[in-house]
Amino acid sequence: MLKRARIPRANKLNLADTLSKSAPYVDTPGKEGNRFLWSLTMTGQEYVRQLLNLPAKDVEIENDVSSLETLISALNDSDAVDYLNEAVKCLQINALRATVVFLWSGAIKKIRDDVFSCGICDVNAAIIKFDAKAKPIRKLDDLVVIKESVLLLSAQELGLYDKNQRTVLEDCLNLRNKCGHPGKYKVGPKKVSSFIEDLIGIVFK
What is the pLDDT of residues 145-187, one digit of tens each? Predict the structure, then answer.
């Protein structure tokens, strides 16, 4: 990879010798054939973070990343997985507003799927109750044009959520709108953590 990156004199570098002298930043868990395997220690990870000017490691964020990765591994919907993977990448670099936007995108995709699975007739009846001007739904993609606030009310009407769950999801939608539209609002890590917990517990349960 050093050669591919055109690092000068890469083929003359004695990487094994360099790594063996790089304690406490690296450690070896063993060998693969005749070659040592190397991994970064916790000290090494912090050193790399400093070199790349990355935000300090946050235990709460690491827990949220782990929760999302566990969720992603259990999902089959490739579109939702793509959104959640983007959310994880944003969370890892402390891009919290982007995390909220991508995570909500994955959640609303799941909500649309669940609503549509209730049957076209029931779905149309529920939507019209809260938006008399809404166009009839014939296929899943038609739900994209339905206001997300109406979709949440319709999901409750269809029995997917109770009133308390719908209210929490409306709060999540409001947070997404604050993060997705230009403004001075900056979301904090605890708010994002609560947002993640709510969506996992309600939408992806």
Answer: 999 999 999 999 999 999 999 999 999 999 999 999 988 999 9
pLDDT score recorded for residue 59: 64
pTM of the model: 0.72
- Work out the mean pLDDT of the chain and round it to a whole number: 91
Co-location of 131 and 197 in the same domain: yes
- Within this chain, do residues 42 and 129 fall inside the same structural domain, yes or no? no
Q: Which residues of 43-73 are buried (b: 16+ CB within 10 A; e: fewer)?
A: ebeebeeeeeeeeeeeeebeebbeebeebbe
Same domain? For 140 and 103 the reply is yes
- Residue 69 and residue 158 in one domain: yes
How far apart CA 91 and CA 57 sit, in angstroms, is: 11
Beta strands in the chain (DSSP E): 26-32, 35-40
- Identify whether residues 123 and 84 lie together within a single domain: yes
User: Nearest 10 degrees: CA dihedral of 160, 176, 86, 80?
Assistant: 20
Instruction: Residue 146: name the closest of 164, 124, 122 by CA.
Output: 124
Give the domain extent around 163: 59-202
